[in-house]
Amino acid sequence: MEKFKRSLGSFAVPLLSILLAFLIGGIIMAALGADPFAAVKYLFQGAFGSKANIGTTLTKATPLMFTSLCACFAYKCGVFNLGGEGQFLMGSIAAFVTAYFSGITGFFGVVLALLAGVLGVREAELREGAWGKPEAPSCARRFNLSHSGAYIVLAVSDAEVGVDVERVQERRLRVAGRVLLPEEREWMEHNPTERFFRLWTLKESVMKAVGKGLALPPSGFSVLPLTRGEPIRTEAGALFGRSTPLDGYWLSVCAAEPLGEPPLHRVTAHELMNKRESEARQ
To answer: 126-134 long-range CB contacts below 8 Å, 24 or more apart?
Structure first.
C-alpha cells in the first residue's frame, strides 16, 4: 500500500503542476482580455490537430524527453547532473558530423550516428582544440556551428572557418561600447541595428575561426575591412568574411580562404528526416 501511495504521488505531482500552470496562464490571459479557453483549444490543435502536427510535436519533444531521461537516470544513480543541455548539444554535434562526413547511409548510418551521439566526442573522432573548439582531426575539411532562435547553422570549408548567426534584438545594442572599436561605432551610427549585428556576427565568426572564442577580446580587432570585402590579419593568418541578413537574423562566416559568395542551403528538420528515411529505404 505504501508503495502504491508513493507511485500515485510521483504521478500526481507533475499532473497537478501542469494543471496549475494552465490555471495561472489562463488567469493572466483573462486579465489581459484574451480568451483562455480558445488559447488552450488552439494549443492542443497546434500540437495534436493533425498527423503533421503530431509529427512536429514528437520531433521537438523527443530530444527533450531523452535528455530528461538521462538526467533522471543519473539522479537515480546518486549523481546530480547539471550539464544536460551541453551534453545534448555535444551529442547532437557528434551524431551530425559522423552522419555527414562518414558517407554511410541507411540503417547502419543511423546506428553509427546514434552511437557517436551516445559515446561522445571521443568515439566520433571529434576533439576539442586548446580553447574548446570542436574539430575532427581525421577529416580534411573544417566545420563550425552556431545557433540562435529558430536557426542552427553549419559552415564547412577546406580551411579554418567560423560562423555566427544572431537574432536581431535592439536591446543587444547596449553592449556596443564594450565590444566595438571607436571607428566601428562611428560606422554603425548610420544604421545602428543592422550594422551592429553585422559587425557583431563578423567578430564572433572571426573569434571562432581563430579558435579562441571570447578568449580573443572582440574589442581587440576591427572587422571593418571585412564589410568592404577585404581580409583582416589575425594570429591565425588572413581571414576573409561575408555577411547576409536572414529573416530577422544576421549571419556571418569567416574562413582562412577567399569566400566569394558562399552557397547557403536551407534545410528544415522535416527535410532532414525525410532525407534520412529515403536513404534508409535505398
So the answer is: 126/93, 126/94, 126/97, 129/211, 130/211, 131/211, 131/212, 131/213, 131/215, 132/213, 133/208, 133/211, 133/213, 134/90, 134/93, 134/97
